[in-house]
Design goal:
- The complex is a heterodimer of chains A (255) and B (332).
- Chain A is globular, with a radius of gyration of 19 Å.
- With 255 residues, chain A is α/β, with parallel strands linked by helices.
- Chain A has one domain: Rossmann fold, CATH 3.40.50.
- Chain B has a domain of 172 residues: ABC transporter involved in vitamin B12 uptake, BtuC (Orthogonal Bundle), CATH 1.10.3470.
- In chain B, helix 5 packs parallel to helix 7.
- The longest helix of chain B has 35 residues.
- Chain B is globular and about 70 Å long.
- The two termini of chain B are 27 Å apart.
- Classes of the chains: A alpha/beta (255), B mainly alpha (332).
């Protein structure tokens, strides 16, 4: 559960986020949607305590964010980073194992249970065949899975993902989002992620938050939020809703 | 050869290296005699005193010291490369060695009362801090900035050392100059006793935290997200690195290349997981410096500074490994 109340963030004197309030619930997928520079990533960085907001309150599972150490925070909340620039070619198994580091003592090493958990996660994500490969040598989609695996190894309540479909091919975009939705349902996890494609949000989100210029324009059920009016307001783009079977998607008009 | 075998080989390599090094020198001693002498305290030995003395008072302390110094340089190199996520740095490049050298020079020239290790450690820590502060911009430490900052700090501290050389009397000058050349020729049991515990402590700290180096090498934001108190833990590793490097420099002067090369060789042979890289770097560093020092003291009639040997041996080997399987282990 994430609760944000009246958040304001300034970076170098510039307002980045203003009066942002939101709630992301367990067992559901919440999507942050908005143009480049609307403050999506900054909001995520506030939630993982990288930025300190100048005003407002953030609570994770009823605990106030500033009261948590990085160590206890990592047990509650895991982050899948957007771009990942690894220096050393660790094996996939070692990368997932790193998720356990907040669960062992300061100078301790992982034990049998940690290794078992890593094997379980490899099986869950169906990436056992990658376990011994250097994660610099696997595809973007596979690496995204590995990083999700590392987050699951933290055994968190809340997961933040920054554009998880970035750099993925057509099929893998759907595969990752489907997996995220299943994980949210099966394990009662709270997922909050940023996306660029409103159609992805229509297909997979339970709750959509529309962000523009650091403010929340609209939030709620995907179909109530992703409307031609709202799209025109924040993207300055004329769109219409089209029916795809039982679903509804958006499509730009003048192309 | 499988990775497991390679790991064991690297782990045990200091033993054969030390036994080899014991045999060579101005006065060759055969393996049989070595066995007898090492067994000496436990049984009667029928060997001339001078052989026993050469072994116990000259070769053994020197080999021990070479191992300690090799261990210190390699362990600190490993830790520095990981915490700065930069495969191109070690204590020498970041100015820690120059800082330690300044500390030694200060102690010899002006404060003979202070233990050399203390001033070396403080100056080395100061150098590390300066380099890091210079390179740190907007929550990041870019690879090139860090190296440039290291060059600047090194140059600054070296200039201060030169200034001291200029100021002190010729008697002290000789000992400072000799020091800075990087040599193990002053080794004795006293040096081992003085540097050993501190090198041991520094290396022990790095060894204890070896798994955390994997997380720190992911970068600040990710390491924090994994639950690492980044600035505190990076500081701790810097402290441990400075401690062992400063102690090493205080007994052997500045020996380059070991800390940069050994961790790379280990990564190429045994994989990048720091839970292995740290202990294996320590043992391979010990092996490498013992063998280099053996060459340094036997190759010609006189003594070659061991730093020349480490560079001559290190550079080609490094290039060879890089060409063979290097691409994946230091991509930036």
């Amino acid at each position: 559960m994430i609760e944000v109340e009246n958040l304001r963030l300034r970076l170098n004197g510039q307002p980045v986020l203003e009066r942002v309030s939101l709630t992301a619930r367990p067992g559901s997928v919440t999507v942050l949607l908005g143009p480049n520079g609307s403050g999506k990533t900054s909001l995520l960085l506030c939630l993982c305590a990288h930025y300190r907001p100048s005003q407002g309150e953030i609570r994770l599972c009823q605990q106030s964010l500033p009261s948590l150490s990085y160590r206890s925070l990592a047990r509650l909340l895991a982050v899948v980073p957007q771009d990942h620039n690894p220096v050393f070619p660790y094996q996939v198994r070692e990368v997932i194992l790193l998720g356990r580091i907040s669960r062992v003592g300061f100078f301790s090493q992982p034990t049998g249970r940690d290794y078992e958990l890593v094997e379980d996660i490899l099986a869950l994500l169906q990436i056992q065949h990658l376990a011994d490969k250097p994660y610099t040598r696997i595809s973007g989609g596979e690496r995204q899975l590995v990083l999700i695996g590392r987050c699951l190894a933290q055994e968190p309540q809340v997961l933040l993902l920054d554009e998880p479909t970035n750099h993925l091919d057509f099929k893998n975009q759907y595969a990752i989002l489907k997996l995220i939705k299943e994980l949210a349902r099966q394990r009662n996890l709270t997922f909050l992620m940023t996306l660029h494609d409103p159609n992805m949000a229509l297909l997979f989100a339970d709750h959509v938050i529309l962000l523009a210029e650091g403010r929340i324009v609209s939030q709620g059920h995907p179909l109530e939020v992703i409307t031609p009016e709202n799209m025109a307001a924040i993207y300055h783009l004329d769109v219409e809703m089209v029916a795809a079977g039982p679903r509804r998607l958006v499509c730009p008009k003048n192309i | 050869m499988s990775r497991t075998w390679l790991r064991w080989l690297l782990l045990l390599s200091p033993l054969p290296a030390a036994l080899t090094a014991l045999q060579f020198g101005a006065y060759p001693i055969s393996p049989g005699e070595i066995g007898l002498i090492l067994w000496g305290p436990f049984g009667g030995v029928e060997l001339p005193d001078h052989i026993i003395n050469i072994l116990w008072q000259v070769r053994l302390p020197r080999i021990f010291l070479a191992m300690l110094v090799g261990m210190a340089l390699s362990a600190s190199g490993t830790a520095l490369q990981a915490i700065f996520r930069n495969p191109l740095v070690d204590a020498f490049i970041l100015g820690l060695s120059a800082g330690a050298a300044l500390g030694c020079a200060l102690s010899v020239a002006f404060w003979p009362g202070l233990p050399i290790q203390v001033t070396a450690f403080l100056c080395s820590l100061l150098a590390a801090f300066l380099t890091f502060t210079l390179a740190h911009t907007r929550g990041e430490v870019p690879i090139l900035s860090l190296i440039l900052a290291g060059v600047i700090v090194s140059a600054f501290f070296s200039a201060l050392v030169s200034m001291i050389k200029f100021l002190v009397d010729p008697h002290k000058l000789a000992s400072i100059v000799f020091w800075l050349m990087g040599s193990l020729s002053l080794a004795d049991w006293l040096a081992v006793r003085q540097a050993g515990p501190w090198i041991g402590l520094g290396c022990f700290l790095i060894w204890l935290g070896r798994w955390r180096l994997n997380a720190l090498s992911m970068g600040d934001v990710e390491a924090k997200a994994l639950g690492i108190e980044v600035s505190r833990e990076r500081g701790l590793f810097l402290l441990a690195a400075a401690l062992s490097v400063a102690s090493a420099v205080s007994v052997s002067g500045i020996i380059g290349w070991v800390g940069l090369m050994v961790p790379h060789v280990v990564r190429m042979l045994a994989g990048p997981d720091h839970r292995w890289v740290v202990p294996l770097s320590m043992t391979l560093g010990a092996t490498f410096l013992v063998l280099s020092d053996t060459v340094a003291r036997t190759f010609t009639g006189g003594e070659i500074p061991v730093g020349i040997i480490t560079t001559l041996a290190g550079a080609p080997f490094f290039i060879f490994l890089l060409k063979q399987r290097g691409q994946e282990s230091w991509r930036t």
